[in-house]
Design a protein that fits this description.
The protein is of the alpha/beta class and 150 residues long. It has one domain. Helices cover 29% and strands 19% of the residues. It is built from four helices and seven strands. The chain has helices spanning 3-12, 80-84, 92-100, 121-139, and strands spanning 34-39, 43-45, 58-62, 68-70, 106-107, 110-114, 144-148. Strands 1, 3, 5, 6 and 7 form a five-stranded mixed β-sheet that branches. The protein is globular and about 45 Å long.
């Protein structure tokens, strides 16, 4: 079997969480909103530590950071797009352009990156690093999180 087939077979057997209720918030209009990026591409700045195979934490990426490194280690992940333009997984320049045109209120001062290729990510992120990440974004006045799952 190819690596992609093996990975799909493995992932299809992982349990999906079930929730009794789903939280819902109505955000302000985009032109008035503060937007942050939350990615699972395991990106980090050059001075941050990379992600390990069991790291369910997150890294803070300042809006102005340009020394981004891709920490996604899956052999099935094509890194070419990120190498050509980091906005493929971290579209901060596109958000800045929208803010400059007045189409969104402002770009958050910092964004978050998780490593998405984890075995037990859901329960640990849901109970630990996820709430910590949400609190950080709330502190920055973030209204909308743009998710870039990788």
């Amino acid at each position: 079997m190819s690596g992609d087939v093996e990975m799909r077979a493995y992932a299809s057997g992982l349990p999906a969480p079930e929730f009794d209720s789903t939280a819902w918030q109505v955000p302000p209009a985009l032109a008035d909103a503060t937007v942050a990026i939350v990615t699972t591409a395991a990106i980090h700045t050059a001075h941050d530590s990379g992600f390990t195979g069991t790291d369910t934490g997150f890294r803070v990426i300042p809006t102005g950071a340009r020394d981004l490194m891709l920490g996604h280690w899956s052999p099935n992940f094509d890194r070419a797009g990120f190498a050509l333009d980091p906005n493929v997984v971290f579209p901060v320049d596109r958000l800045s352009e929208l803010a400059a045109r007045g189409e969104l209120g402002r770009v958050a001062p910092r964004h978050l990156a998780f490593a998405g290729n984890q075995e037990d990510t859901v329960s640990r992120v849901r109970l630990d690093s996820g709430p910590a990440a949400a609190e950080l974004l709330r502190g920055d006045g973030v209204d909308i999180a743009l998710l870039t799952p990788v």
